Amino acid sequence: MKILIVEDEVHIAKHLSQVVCRIIGEDVKPPHICFSLNHALEFISKNAIDLLLLDLNLSGKDGFETLKLMVSKPFHVIVVSAHVEKAIEAYEYGVLDFVPKPFSEDRLRQSFKRLSGKMDRPLPSTIKNFIVKKKNKLEIIKEEKVLFFEAYGHYSKIHLKDKSTVVYDKPLIALESLLDNRFERVHKCFIVKMTAIKNIEIFAGGKYFLEINNGVKVRVGRDKYKQIKEKWLS
Questions:
Q1: Residue of 71, 125, 78 whose CA lies nearest to 98
Q2: Own/partner pairs, 27-36, CB within 8 angstroms, 24+ separation
Q3: Domain range summary for the chain, segments of one domain joined by +
């Protein structure tokens, strides 16, 4: 796992790195630390990372402009910040977790459990915005417009109510950690919003499909059919 810490207070950054090392174990490379947003962006442009630990207040920079930029990238973001009043808004933009300062090792361990999928999924209405890059600009896609997600190489496609699609820089496995239980992984290639299902169709040979509200049909894995049917009918 490749981890980047972005924190402009040196003693906090070093302490956070030490705690992370205790959590992930000595056999994993220690986190890289950047003390400014510019250095972080330069590092990310040259290095692939899996996780970013981000402070929202970086030398007077607009924390949420920074956050929007970071959550649009193909890695998870955990915010570590004293501005707890910003937690709900941070979750709405798709962060994996929000750890208040001063942080404890136990609290940070919870975040890493969520990263590994060992914690419960978020409560409903957690993520409300998906930040995507279009023509070198960031665009906000409201969750209410989303019907389902489709695997697209190392990324995902977001399918919207108007039948248009946008590319999202996170893969389906990363999305599963962010999405609440209104969404279900119905196939290795699809995550669907349960309220977007219009009908379930069964074909010869044990093939199952979901008809989505916009008329598109999505394949359902055989091992998922019973679970999805029960949840949809409940």
A1: 78
A2: 28/1, 29/2, 31/3, 31/4, 31/5, 32/2, 32/3, 32/4, 32/5, 33/4, 33/5, 33/6, 33/7, 34/4, 34/5, 34/6, 35/6, 35/7, 35/8, 35/10, 36/8
A3: 3-115, 144-233
Q: What is the pTM of this model?
A: 0.84
Structural tokens at position 90? 């941070």
Is the domain defined by 3-115 classed in CATH 3.40.50.2300? yes
* Integer Cα distance of 117 and 178 in angstroms: 10
pLDDT in tens, 60-101: 666 788 888 899 999 999 999 998 888 988 999 999 999 999
Strands 76-81 and 129-134: unpaired
What pLDDT score does 45 carry? 92
Fold annotation for 144-233: OB fold (Dihydrolipoamide Acetyltransferase, E2P) (2.40.50)
Tokens linked to 91: 């979750």
